[in-house]
Each structure stands twice: as C-alpha cells, then as structure tokens.
Amino acid sequence: MPAEITDKGLRYVYLCPLRWADMDSFGHVNNVVYLRYLEQARVEWMFMTAKQAGIEEFSLGTVVARHEIEYKRPLVYRSEPVRVETWVTRVGNASFTVAYEVKDDDFVYAVAKTVLVPYDLGAERPRRMTAEERDYLKPYLAPAPPESRHR
User: Fold this and answer.
1) For the residues of 15-29, what is the DSSP string, one character each?
2) In this structure, what DSSP letter does residue 114 have?
3) Buried b / exposed e across 122-146, counting CB within 10 Å, b at 16+?
4) Of residues 149 and 139, which shows the higher confidence score?
5) Where are the domains of the chain?
6) Is a pLDDT exceeding 60 seen at residue 150?
7) What's the whole-model pTM score?
8) At the fourth CATH level, which superfamily is domain 3-140?
9) 122: which residues sit within 8 A by CB, 6+ positions away?
10) How many contiguous H segments (helices) and E segments (strands) does the chain have?
11) CA-wise closest residue to 144 among 97, 104, 107, 103
12) What is the torsional sign of CA 5, 8, 13, 19?
C-alpha cells in the first residue's frame, strides 16, 4: 500500500498479515513479533520509495541503532491484516528516527520508534546522510505520538 496523507501528515501504510505462529500462549501477538511487523513496514517503505526516488543505496544500507515499543493493548489473531503506519520524526546528519503506529480503525495496539543510521556497505561503517536522503525523508516528517507515562 502506498503512502497516504492522514490527519497527522504523510505516512507510509503497510497492511501486515497476521499469522497463527505470531501468537503466544496467551492468544495474542507475541511482543517480540511486533519487531518483525515494524521491520516489514520499514523495509517495504524504504525499499519501494527510496528506490523510486533514485537513492537505492539508502534503501539497502541502513542499520538499526535503537528500538522502542510501547504496547497499548493486546492484538489477537484475525484474518484481516493490521495497519502499520510509518513516518519520520527526526532527521539528523548521521541518523533519523522512524515512528510507527500498529493499529486498525478501532484501536492502537502499539506505538514505536526506531533510530536508523545510514551505512556504507562497501566500507562496512556508518556514514553521514546525503542532502538527497534528507530531502527524501522531509515529506514524511511529523511529530511522534505522545508518550504515555505509566508509573
């Protein structure tokens, strides 16, 4: 599914199929599986759109520096896919942050963010972002969802 303009700005939307194997013994999606859902959404977004923008190296050469996930409610198996909306919350000189909402029409199941670092595959080391890469990310730039304070 392509990017779409939501009431919160431009987001890439990935419709993620649920699998029986994603469930844990409590009958809901295992917390670790959410990382795979985020990866699938992020890889599809970057691979498809960065390649179309002519910056294929960017789509293939990024590494994860950090993940944060906040689980909002259990997601149980169903035949319909869950919607993973992806956008950018920060663009720096050598990293950027991607945010996600795992949701459907009625509920948000999780919010998350990933810090990504461009990586030079030939030199096998992190690198700075190019002006073209920063320009590519700008249309997706929007605030992160507010964080919950559970104490």
Assistant:
1) EEPP-GGGB-TTSBB
2) E
3) eeeeeeebeeebeebbeebeeebbe
4) 139
5) 3-140
6) no
7) 0.88
8) Hotdog Thioesterase (3.10.129.10)
9) none
10) 3, 7
11) 97
12) negative
